[in-house]
Design a protein that fits this description.
Strand content: 25-35%
Radius of gyration: 20 Å
CATH topology of the largest domain: TIM Barrel
CATH superfamily of the largest domain: Metal-dependent hydrolases
Distance between the termini: 18 Å
CATH architecture of the largest domain: Alpha-Beta Barrel
Number of domains: 2
Oligomer: single chain
Length: 386
């Protein structure tokens, strides 16, 4: 047993000075005072005790790609992010042929069985059923059609396929969205040229989430001489949508982050790193890299760019930095900043009964950090990893 004392405990809507007892990987008691018994005592020294962060969209970290087809290396990717507070992670694939994605998933499965540094929650397929015109840093050769390249093997390959990103305007997308919903998989509007009407219609065909809002999706554009609303406006104005947000202050400027938070609130927006293998890796400014899909990228201005600098290529962010930005820059209360990185993503994929919050009976995924969100200790399922 482990007893946390002298902690400012971050609950869903409040911060309270409480004691927390952990046993068997679970939070078993929360109280103002409790007898330590045989427990090891952790004095938090007045720092915050927070639920662990949950990253639902991350392609790699620590120099390792989720596409690497090596279970041991994938656990290394998870550890790199865990040291920045990510106690639960959803390895995210790049667009690729279905056969390759199935092979990658097998290695993620194996990593989930052996990983002791974070909870591997399953897999997130970002594509391959995307818009070629809005592919961003995705490889053009790997953008597929759900009519020509059957998605059913991906839907059936694991009961922990959690999210699939799909462009709703492509032929066959609405039928795919309905199949995803029927399987309990989140259908996320992703890498899309859809307009507002299509995005709203998608809600009736299984879609419920928007991938990295404002990035690789439409926002109030001109069609002829008239302006047309896009995916962004659908997401901001319809509460049936949740929104993934890369809150690194590079993919989105401060004013836009404030707008998203004002429109969606902490219950309908959640932060993601969209981290490449170069996130959580201590890159130096100007360093050139090659992604797992062969696309060359450069770390510049604190973000990954495609080498020709035509667009961004995923982030080098970590979850602690995103929570810090929501708290310190956006001005969200700390409870809300933490919620966007814990309880809300847990709710999106339906694991909030045991993940994403500090409550009795929940998994003991816990962080100790200071007011600047500097991570001091990380606990995963009742075990410290640092």
């Amino acid at each position: 047993m482990i007893l946390f004392k002298n902690a400012k405990v971050i609950l869903e809507n409040s911060i309270e000075e409480l004691m927390l007892l952990v046993d068997g990987g679970k939070i078993v008691k929360i109280a103002k005072e409790t007898a330590p018994g045989e427990a090891e005592i952790i004095d938090c020294g007045g720092l915050y005790l927070s639920p662990g962060f949950i990253d639902l969209h991350v392609h790699g970290g620590g120099g390792i790609s989720a596409m690497c087809k090596d279970a041991e290396k994938i656990t290394g990717m998870c550890r790199a992010h865990a040291l920045h507070g990510t106690t639960s992670i959803l390895p995210t694939t790049l667009a690729a042929p279905v056969k390759q994605l199935l092979e990658v998933t097998e290695h993620i499965k194996k990593a989930a069985e052996i990983c002791g540094c974070s909870n591997i929650l399953g897999v997130h397929f970002e594509g391959p059923y995307l818009s070629p015109e809005s592919r961003g840093a995705q490889s053009a050769d790997n953008i597929l059609s759900p009519l020509k390249d059957d998605p059913q093997p991906l839907l059936d390959c694991w009961d922990k396929v959690r999210i699939m990103g799909v462009a709703p305007e492509i032929e066959g997308a609405f039928e795919l969205g309905e199949k995803l919903k029927a399987k309990g998989i989140v259908a996320s509007v992703a890498h899309t040229k859809a307009d507002y009407d299509t995005a709203i219609s998608a809600l009736d065909h299984g879609f419920s989430d928007v991938t990295h809002i404002y990035n690789a999706c439409t926002s109030c554009f001109k069609r002829g001489i008239f302006r047309v609303a896009g995916v962004v406006e659908a997401a901001l104005t319809d509460d049936r949508y949740t929104a993934q947000v890369i809150a690194d202050l590079r993919h989105l400027p401060l004013g836009v982050l404030k707008l998203i938070y004002k429109c969606k609130g902490a219950d309908k927006m959640y932060v993601i790193t969209d981290g490449l293998e170069f996130s959580a890796a201590g890159l130096k400014e100007g360093e050139h890299c090659v992604q797992a899909n062969g696309v060359e990228a450069i770390f510049e201005d604190g973000v990954m760019k495609v080498a020709d600098r035509s667009c961004l290529a995923g982030s080098a962010a970590t979850m602690d930095s995103l929570v810090r930005n929501m708290y310190k820059a956006v001005g969200a209360p700390l409870t809300d900043a933490v919620k966007t990185a814990s309880l809300t993503p847990a709710r999106v994929i339906g694991i909030d009964s045991h993940k994403g919050s500090i409550k009795e009976g929940a998994d003991a995924d816990l962080l100790i950090f200071d007011d600047d969100i500097n991570i001091k200790r990380v606990m995963v399922m009742g075990r410290f990893i640092n």
